[in-house]
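Input chain follows. Return structure tokens only.
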Amino acid sequence: MSQQSQTAPTGVAERADTRSPRVILAITSLAAFMASLDVFIVNVAFDEIGESFHGSSIGDVSWVLNAYAIIYAALLVPLGRLADKVGRKRMFLLGLGVFTVASVACAAAPGLWWLVAFRILQAAGAAALTPTSLGLLLAAVPADKRMPYVRLWSAAAGIAAAAGPVLGGVLVTASWRWVFLVNLPVGILALVAAARAVPDSRDPKVSKVPDIVGAGLLTIGIGALALALVEGGDWGWGNGKTIASFAIAAVLLAGFVWRAEHHPVPVVEPDLYRVRSFAAANIAMITFSIGFAGYLLTLVLWMQNVWHWSTITTGLAVAPGPATVPIVTVLVQRFGRRIQPGVLTTLGCVAFAAGIILTLALAGPHGSNYASELLPGELVSGLGIGLALPTLLSSATAGLPPHRTSTGSGVINMTRQIGYVLGVSILVAILGTPTTYSSTHGAFVHGWWTMGIIELVAAVACLGLLNRRSNAS
């Protein structure tokens, strides 16, 4: 979750002390929960969506996940900054409304690429409501009481991760379209409540519009890179289209870096990466997120296509790993404050890699015993995620000056979403076409090995956080 608007609540348009912070916490957390839930709930519906649109390959369906993550990543920081200028409540209500309407459109999509288009719109709404939800909360809470509220707000993401597979499995038994339609009543409730109970705030120091062109270069650049990875196996890695996609990605991402160096209000401020802990946290985050996204999707596809389990059984079976994360997070908050972030995150990534390799070692092609074949790996990986992810998010900004923490928080969350895109894309490139699932699990073995090695690379990157303590972790 982004903490994009975590700057001091200057310029509050309405008197926050007349509103209950707990009510505001409930409303903003509900909205943040919706945006996070849509990242996890769609994984379980992945196979059903592909079957619904005949002739769609796994690469085609992967864009239902990737389009959301790409747009969310690219717009998270710019829309957070724009909200500081025009008013956070206005941007929050706009984002919530767009997200809700786009969810209904996703549910009614007549074709796969219509669904992808509506997912892009949905991601834009999520990118507007996520940073503003935290900014509005911080503006309504006294400074000395903010940290407990921030932790509760952040817990919404952990709950969404745990609830997403189960809720998705239940809804998909009726239709995958209910995965999106469920957002309608929740969105309307949140809109009405926010309009009546949440006071506005803005940052009067923000006067310039963020670099929208830079955000566009980032969006298309990451999209071109994902396209090359997803389609490279079918096109051929030496095919002109694959090479052209990689080249376009390189040119556009280089243009994004150039814009960041020269634009007065860049999407990412280059000097942030001169802070050692921030640079290390972002490298660790992108590699960690690649493994996270890839591992979660392999579990779903393995259960549904190799073991031939139903979506509701798959959802229930995937849930224990994510459910472990908030428990570990609470324990770390209580008992692990004296442990360096570099140590916690390194151990977390190593544990996550161990969980993936344990799954690789135990999972058989017949699914005769879930408790002995998949559950151990899920629980160990959940332990690793709980140790690494919250600590990475908090320690990324620990070495930054106070006026840069909100921007730094937005950037680390952008990095996380980019990692999700790359994880899904790399996995699709490894797995190939769905026809390979029932005949052999060799492709999954390669996928699990790849994700495990990537997590070990993330563990090495986490060593850059040693000797850097985070008060928030």
